[in-house]
Each structure stands twice: as structure tokens, then as C-alpha cells.
Amino acid sequence: MKNIILVGMSGCGKSTLGKFLSEKLNIPFLDTDKYIEKKENMSIDEIFRTKGEKYFRYLENDILKDLENFNGIISTGGGLPVFNNNMYILNSLGNTIFLDVNVDICIKRILNDKSRPLAKKGNVYLRNLYNERKTIYKKAQYTIECTYKTLNEILQEMYIITKN
């Protein structure tokens, strides 16, 4: 089986859906943000505050080498596909799926989670960020429109993709 790589805006449900699919298929799950936190022994928020976003983007790009030997479900950070030609690399590592969720839902989820660096930026910034990033996310091999679907409907679509 190829890796299933989930991309999309922060707050779209990549980690939640990835964990569910991983359990359903009984295969490993990796969240790139959690992986970086473990590797750096600090939270994403701490990395942003102490070392800056540029350093964090370097870390994201650097871990892609580690993912070459992974076989399972990968949930990427919202910005990972956007920088350093990473979307192209992700597409070479497995089946990429853009989880397309209405931006207002993503914003609500982000603003309710103070552990996210983006939570401090506000609605207008997040809306603009989503509009900028969506073009890159759409370069994924598959898109699942998630806004009006149940968890089970989304998982079913993801499951079908894993069979390709």
C-alpha cells in the first residue's frame, strides 16, 4: 500500500481523520507536527516563538526524507505542502488527499485552539492564508469536499482512495 498523505488548512481535520483511518486499516499514523515536536523536544508554538517560522519550515522540509521509509497515513501541517516545493515531494511519497473544508469552519476550529500559532492571527489573516494556500492544496492527487459530509462518509472516500 502507498502512503496516504492528508493535506489542507489547519483545522480541516487531517489529524482526526488520519487517526480514524489508521485504526480502521490497522496501519501506522504519523502527524508531521507531532513528529517535529518530538524531534525538537518543544511545541510548534515554542519553535515559532524561539526559532521562528523560517526554521520551522526548514524542519518540515527536512523530515520529508524520513517519510520516504514510512508506510501508513501521514497528516501534514497546514503549511508543509506550501513551502520548498514540498507538495511535489509529497505527491511522490504516496497518494495525497486535499481535505477541502469551508474556510469558516477551519477558522472557528483554529481560533478555539490556543496551542496553534495561527490562532493569534485573527479571521482576516486566516481567510487570506487559506485563499493563498488552496492553490497548492489542489495539486494533491485527490480532493475530498468535507464541509457537508459526515465523518463516516469522508472515511469511506478515504478508504476507497487507499485501494488505488
TrEMBL record:
Protein name: Shikimate kinase
InterPro entries xref list: P-loop_NTPase, Shikimate/glucono_kinase, Shikimate_kinase/TSH1
Binding site for Mg(2+): S15
Pathway: Metabolic intermediate biosynthesis; chorismate biosynthesis; chorismate from D-erythrose 4-phosphate and phosphoenolpyruvate: step 5/7
Quaternary structure note: Monomer.
Family according to the record: Belongs to the shikimate kinase family.
Residues bound to ATP: G11, C12, G13, K14, S15, T16, R116
HAMAP family listed in its UniProt record: Shikimate_kinase
Organism, as annotated: Clostridium frigidicarnis
Compartment(s) of residence: Cytoplasm
Described function: Catalyzes the specific phosphorylation of the 3-hydroxyl group of shikimic acid using ATP as a cosubstrate.
Protein residues bound to substrate: D33, R57, G78, R133
